[in-house]
Amino acid sequence: MLEREGFAATVLRLRGEGISDINLLTAVEQTPRSKFVAHHLLDQAYSSGTIPIECGSFMEGIDLAVRLLDRLKVTGAQRVLEVGTGSGFMTAVMARLAERVISVERYKTLVTDAQARLDQLGIRNVILRHGDGMNGQPGEGTFDRILVTAAFSSMPKIFTEQLVHNGILLAPIMVSADRCVMMRLTRTGSRFEREDLFEVPYQPIIPHVAVYL
Fold this sequence. Notes:
- α2 (22-29) packs across α4 (89-97).
- The protein has helices spanning 2-15, 22-29, 62-72, 89-97, 108-120, 157-161, and strands at residues 51-52, 58-59, 79-83, 100-105, 126-130, 143-148, 163-176, 179-188, 191-199.
- It has one domain (2-199): Vaccinia Virus protein VP39 (Rossmann fold, 3-Layer(aba) Sandwich), CATH 3.40.50.
- β8 and β9 (191-199) form a beta hairpin.
- With 213 residues, the chain is of the alpha/beta class.
- Strands 5-4-3-6-7-8-9 form a 7-stranded mixed sheet. Strands 1-2 form a two-stranded antiparallel ribbon.
């Protein structure tokens, strides 16, 4: 009941924003949010507000998560890089849309928890890595889509070098001390088209893996 009603309410809100991609919405419906939140927070699973998770991190509200994935346009035989696994919810949704997802997270606890959720859902086309995502994943080739969920002060060039022709990169950029805006970069040959989308609640990226968590 929670999943069905929560998803239905989400779809109504998102359609008001013009988001109606049936493949994306089906992938979201097949990825129950209740699997990704703590038991005492189940009533918030489909809320539009952020939800706390382990290691002092948070998962995006459902509206923002779907809004980001709608802008990323994940389809078909694509390879996707995600920097910041978090709860693994967006990882799981993207895995239902793409051929392969590589997701990097600095907190070992979050990697372990996310892997358990993916296993429970039977998702096998994701590689989770406990590591530093500051430089993407050099040595892994290029990616059709890159999603970053920790903010930079400016767009790091290393990510653009890992993007294919017609590839899309979403990354949060700190535009002031307390404002963060999601930016979309689309590559066409050697040219990049930048579009600033909307404000997001992400915090500045922290380099290196976490020592204790």
